[in-house]
Design a protein that fits this description.
271 residues, mainly alpha, MetI-like fold, 0% strand, transmembrane
């Protein structure tokens, strides 16, 4: 019992350390600037104020536009990632062709290349193509799949029994029919995993949108929040309100897909 108590105490401490920044951000978002300046940071707001949120959605700030832009980017990238990663992963897992494994491991090795190394070449290419500060400039580097997504799906596809694939071929099914009628329906857990990972990573993406865009037309949530922090350096209540709005869709996503997220953690852990 004593050992179990220590385990739960450690888990409780980990929970507090993890959740405390989010609670502090939420409480600060509902404080007025005067409350934030005159009270300790851990003091709950009294009274709770919506002044910061009203300020974000009024005047020239218009925080709705970055949320809409980010949602559009995430939707397009998720669709592209699922489509192209599934096709590539199935080819690497089940389609026989020359140098298949060697090509896969060379492609997978690009995971070792940091993103900052490719930023300047990508920016140069997109500038020459006239895609700087455009919607497609934001999504094209990520829409055609990723090494991590292809690796994750390939390992899952390889675990599907070969007997199912062979039986489908004996019944006259081709590669595309097998993929969409057998493999994809059996792969819903891993596809949910990939969807969740893609949504979270690209909703929070900051470096590439900051570099490829300028002005407010294609400003994402992360860039808009960073802009508030720079422009209104002393008004942390406004910055925390923007941070709360940026976190809200991810919290809603977690609330809706709790079971899928938990199963996805198990899947990625086992794989």
């Amino acid at each position: 019992m004593l050992r179990g108590s220590w385990i739960y105490l450690l888990l409780l401490l980990g929970f507090i350390v993890t959740v405390a920044p989010f609670l502090l951000s939420l409480m600060t978002a509902f404080k007025t600037p005067n409350q934030f300046a005159g009270e300790p940071a851990l003091t709950p707001p009294n009274p709770w104020s919506l002044e910061n949120f009203a300020s974000l959605f009024s005047g020239d700030r218009n925080f709705i536009a970055p949320v809409v832009v980010t949602a559009q980017i995430v939707i397009v990238i998720v669709i592209g990632q699922l489509l192209f990663s599934v096709l590539a992963a199935y080819a690497f897992a089940r389609v026989e062709f020359r140098f298949r494994d060697a090509l896969f491991w060379v492609y997978l090795a690009t995971l070792m290349v940091p993103q900052v190394v490719t930023v300047i070449p990508l920016y140069t290419m997109f500038s020459q193509l006239g895609l700087r500060n455009t919607f497609w400039g934001l999504v094209l580097p990520f829409v055609f799949g990723s090494p991590y997504a292809i690796f994750l799906l390939r390992e899952y596809f390889r675990a599907i029994p070969e007997d199912l694939i062979s039986a489908a071929r004996l019944d006259g099914a081709g590669t595309i029919r097998i993929l969409f009628s057998i493999v994809i329906p059996l792969s819903k857990p891993i596809l949910a995993t990939l969807t969740i990972i893609t949504v979270v990573s690209h909703w929070n993406n900051f470096l590439w949108p900051l570099i490829i865009t300028s002005g407010k037309t294609w400003q994402t949530v992360t860039v808009a929040t960073a802009g508030l922090q720079t422009q209104y350096n002393g008004n942390w209540t406004l910055v925390m309100a923007a941070t709360t709005i940026a976190m809200a869709p991810l919290l809603i996503l977690f609330a809706i897909f709790q079971k899928s997220i938990i199963s996805s953690i198990a899947i990625t852990g086992f794989k």
